[in-house]
């Protein structure tokens, strides 16, 4: 069923879509018709009220509305505008009553209000009264910042900008003149606070160029109606900035200009930029630059633009919205007019490009934007000349500043633009201990009160100790500081970092608001407690946002320091030239060849030959023991004294084995030199991309310094986040601690600036940097934002690079000529020591011990064998004695029976002739004659053959190794 339903639905889908389209069209037509019916019911008459300052303004107001009724682009057919105006009363209460009695009763849709000639509260009274019913009010002359507050003036708009909008023009002027450090002076009223707030916001949001942001060195706030300004001026005179931005009323400005002139702060070298009110002061100094709103006092032009803006908004609303009648009575009506809210939003959206006062538009607060200003220069008290204009550029579609700088007269009647700051000649310079850039040692008593000639005194900065320890500093940065001071002519006082850190942006422990603050060297510069940092300070975006850097005096990067992996000299180091498999094969080959040699020599028919000697004996074939001795002797290149192969086949194999031994020994000798003498291991890590660094599972510890530029680099790099989390717990407070642990094998890898690590590697040849540089950056001189020394320091550093001065500092402090020593040491072979060859000596010692053990075993075995032989010999002697006695007795018995002579038959084993001398036979004469004449007993009796004549013969056999065995036969004669 579901399948059938899907098929049917797919067929009905186009029909369903058409049906929905028809329904939408019907509802759309109905809604349009309904809206048309609603707009058709809108009124055709629109009353506009005016609270103006003069009769002339009232007449112009009425004439403009009458002219508007004939201006068809702004009119919907049949609509008519009517003008109702009253004159502004200085009394705000009367003004409010007049609005109710003469304007609201006429059901006005909006009110255009001017500024009174005397008094300031009447426009506010009109705004309060009309705003209660949400009747829009368009001001044409009120510029107070209070009217921007929509919580109070809910339906107020104006065709003139508030005074605080001049801050945008000020920022453009400062950027044009390249004044990036200023002092802001303002009254403590609503307009003054709004002015400084808008200035700070605008100055920080002008473009993306960080170096062009304006920095406020000090904000001087004063109460309106002051009598003197001496204390504030003394504070301003001690500051570096000489550019003063002032928002003040005419009366307050006269007091400030008077006291400033008494201190010569209106003369050459100072810059005053003021607002419109202060520009009207009677004693405004020559060279002051101020602003003047274009058409600020042209009330008629603002009336014209206001009417046309209002008519355009009503026409737009009349076409699309339902309009309800405005309230008609202030006494009985208390309801809010909803159409008034809608009309207010429509007016804010209007843009009138061809207005008499320029392009008219409003921001979200209903304040005029795109207002144009004249840039005014005070050449004399009564001569205020326009030197430029801040206007709307139609091509760029934004406001643009145009100045004729050649026409400007600066304070002191100078034509040249002042620098805008006081350049201090004595600077507070901070540094930090970091070899080889800064070496620090405490000043000893024997040194007196002064450091050595190549050192500079550098106490701890801002320390609270009663008797602070005085240090002496020298190094790369100290030499650079001395050269800079001589080149660009400044004096200095050098101090060490108070907390021993470069600077980290973090939340302070005592900060309840959780606001981040800088510590270390960076904090001292940011909070203007020091003027310059001359240390190995890495340039990075986090720091550059708060302080200013010179061009790098040394380019470097980040690298890894580790200890060279020493070759482990084990007891079997001499076995390293061959693999374990090859050693097993060589050992097996010796015994296999020995076995084959034995077999070839054993079964070869030519394996024996007669020796040329007297007895004609033959030499035996090669036995297995001699074959093994021969194979080892050839392999170890030792002389072979005996036991050589005799057959041709065995000798051929012996020659092949000798060739094999020559190749094996030569290869071993060559590889032994490479392994124990020439090879020097380099590094264990390949660089930052090494898998062991990236993996948290590896037992490899790496670290950097907390809060350093390297630490910031790892925090920025997303791909290194896993590695950073692993190393974060291992980070050190100082680089010295980390380098010490690397030397002591407590830390495997230290990640730090390449300059420092290259220095350490040059000092200690056991240390080495691994991989290529990454995170390339440079060391720069740190200065305050807008520091007058920035350009001079940068130009000097560039000159030092070109002249070779920086290169000489590298050779003197970083490399120190020790790189060549390490390289020479790398090229020279290692000297073999006991660690390398201990296994060989131990092998000899083992051979000696084994030989001694074997000789003890042999001696014991020999003694045991001799005792056994002695016992056997004793048993033979007793046996022979017994046989002799028995034989004697038998012979005696036989002699008694017969009278004939007994015949003796002698049978002897085939033994050497000398053995017969120890025969128990007393005399050879007792033997028969035939036996005595026989040349050799060996030939007389072969083997163990015995002749038995009688069964009662008594054989006399000799044991092994004993005298010959004689057999006596008794023959009856």
From TrEMBL:
Site location (Interaction with the cone snail toxin Con-ikot-ikot): 715
Keywords: Calcium, Cell membrane, Disulfide bond, Glycoprotein, Ion channel, Ion transport, Ligand-gated ion channel, Magnesium, Membrane, Phosphoprotein, Postsynaptic cell membrane, Receptor, Signal, Synapse, Transmembrane, Transmembrane helix, Transport
TM segment ranges: 582-600, 652-678, 837-861
Location of this chain's protein in the cell: Cell membrane; Postsynaptic cell membrane; Postsynaptic density
A Pfam family of this chain: Lig_chan-Glu_bd
Main location, first listed in the record: membrane
Residues covered by region (Disordered): 953-973
GO biological process: ionotropic glutamate receptor signaling pathway
UniProt GO MF annotations: ligand-gated monoatomic ion channel activity; signaling receptor activity
Protein name, entry field: Glutamate [NMDA] receptor subunit 1
Species whose genome carries this gene: Aphis craccivora (Cowpea aphid)
